[in-house]
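Sample pair:
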Amino acid sequence: MSAARYRFHAHAADHAHLPELLVPAETVEQWWNGIETYLTTGITNAASEGDNRLIKLEAATPSASATERTNASAHAVQPSAGADEKRTPAEFEDSVK
């Protein structure tokens, strides 16, 4: 296994001008301990990584009341332009000073 890894990194080093080779080589080097563990034991942590992703997605989903408060406060600071008055963001900033 180490001979194949060495050949891969040597090939990537010989072609260092190609980002298509450098990025995977850097990734393999960074994650080598996990890759080697999987190749030798067949054990992976994919199930727990999937669970962690679902937990993070659920935590990132805003509740309805939080969304309403956020939208209400975001729109409260916007000036309303009259029918004859059109303001651009730059003009609004200038008038606040």
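The mean pLDDT is 77.
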